Amino acid sequence: MRTTQAIFNSAAVFLLSASALSVSAANWSVTEAQMQHGDLKQAFVNEDRSTTILTLQHASGWAYGDNFFFFDHLNYSNEAGGDGDELYGEWYSNFSLGKISGKDLSFAFVRDLGVIAGFNFAPEVDTIYYLPGIRLALDLPGFAFANLDMTAYIQDSDMLPKEDDSFMVDFNWAYPFSIGSAAFSVEGHVEYIDGAENDAGGERESWILAQPQVRYDIGKSLFSQPDSLFIGIEYQYWQNKLGDKNTDENTVQALGVWRF
Fold this sequence. Notes:
Blueprint: H1 4-25, E1 28-42, E2 47-62, E3 65-77, E4 83-96, H2 97-101, E5 110-122, E6 127-138, E7 145-157, E8 166-179, E9 182-193, E10 196-197, E11 203-204, E12 207-210, E13 213-216, H3 218-223, E14 229-239, E15 249-259
Antiparallel strand pairs: 1-2, 1-15, 2-3, 3-4, 4-5, 5-6, 6-7, 7-8, 8-9, 9-12, 9-13, 10-11, 12-14, 13-14, 14-15
């Protein structure tokens, strides 16, 4: 396997190029730059680190499905008083079975069914996870979107001990609302990733990660430019962070978002 750093860089170039072309190719497209700051725990040492995260996030839809990806750059304080840096990314392509077949697949509170191809990139540990699976696109009142994704979680690493395959369940959503003339939204995701043993005799514990954001559309209120500039918070709850049974996270981060 090529190093994950090389794959990460190649994927970043490809996806950034794809997002640039999406203006003409996609039915819709949303690209954001996000900045978060707060105290996050470092897994396996269970110590707080003052952390700033810069995120490039993109979502778009086309005739037969939709795509979503983000790349994070984390900068955090370390024990020596200096800085540490990490890169991380995720990419998901969903293929709508309803759009591909031309048939209405809705039932109960499900609007559509999809097939997902997902990839998680962790270049610091030269690791990729593959996440093939299915999506239930939900029809929930008031939600801009709501999805329930169920995928495999398959490790491919040149550095870490080989893990058994496991699975992920993820609920992701966006819920816009208004108070008077002010516009807000609550959006994010909650995931469960099942634990797995590895061939070195260790075990990655199952984890639960919740990352809801509360956003205020300050661009609309101050500049009469809705859906362009947001401020708010991101709450992060992570039980068994990165599979470490000794690290649980429960914190709030300041959030700024520029949508372009």
